[in-house]
Design a protein that fits this description.
The protein has about 180 residues and is mainly β. The protein has one helix at about 80-85; strands spanning about 10-15, 20-25, 45-50, 55, 75, 90-95, 100-105, 125-135, 135-145, 150-160, 165-170.
Length: about 180
């Protein structure tokens, strides 16, 4: 009997993606692309580049509450993709440049981290921090304020309560 692993989409576009510039780059720790790894990357997490031009999580996920201090980019590669597994470099794709609007499940609306606030209003700024979802820590979105010293990555365009549990954000140039 074949066993299938259910795929959950965590990050999806709302607008046309043609004008977006995507970057495919290797992951610094290739074991994070293995879906059987307890710390595996999932779509909708946030990444940044290290000094070797390899992608790493935007913040330390050893504990919740760590903020990203560098510009961050959303991961748009589903966990366990065969094309990622088939290459030695383990290339994954992030949204690199251009204005975009996406919906995500990788957020914590109640988190109050650093100078941020819980996500409660449309057009509120968001930033990246380590968050806990179902007992696992991810590099995801939390509310931010204009006083934040760490980079913000976008604005809320639709709240989860009005959008079937999905947080809609606008980011990239011009947010």
């Amino acid at each position: 009997m074949a066993v299938t692993v259910p795929y959950v989409e965590n990050f999806r576009p709302v607008r046309d993606i043609l004008p977006l510039e995507r970057l495919s780059a290797p992951v610094a720790d290739p074991t994070l692309t293995d879906p059987s790894n307890a710390a595996a990357l999932i779509d909708g997490e946030w990444m940044t580049l290290d000094a070797n031009y390899k992608l790493v999580r935007a913040c330390d996920v050893a504990t919740a509450g760590n903020e990203a201090s560098l510009p961050s980019f959303p991961l748009w590669t589903e966990s366990g993709r065969f094309d990622v597994q088939a290459t030695a470099e383990r290339l994954v794709t992030v949204i690199w440049m251009g204005a975009w609007e996406f919906e995500t499940l990788i957020f914590d609306a109640a988190a109050d981290i650093g100078l941020g606030d819980p996500i409660t209003t449309r057009l509120q700024l968001v930033k990246v921090a380590s968050i806990t979802i179902s007992g696992k820590i991810y590099s995801g979105l939390v509310g931010a304020t204009s006083s934040d010293t760490n980079p913000t990555v976008g604005r809320v365009t639709r709240l989860p309560a009005d959008n079937g549990g999905w947080l809609r954000i606008r980011g990239g140039s011009g947010y």
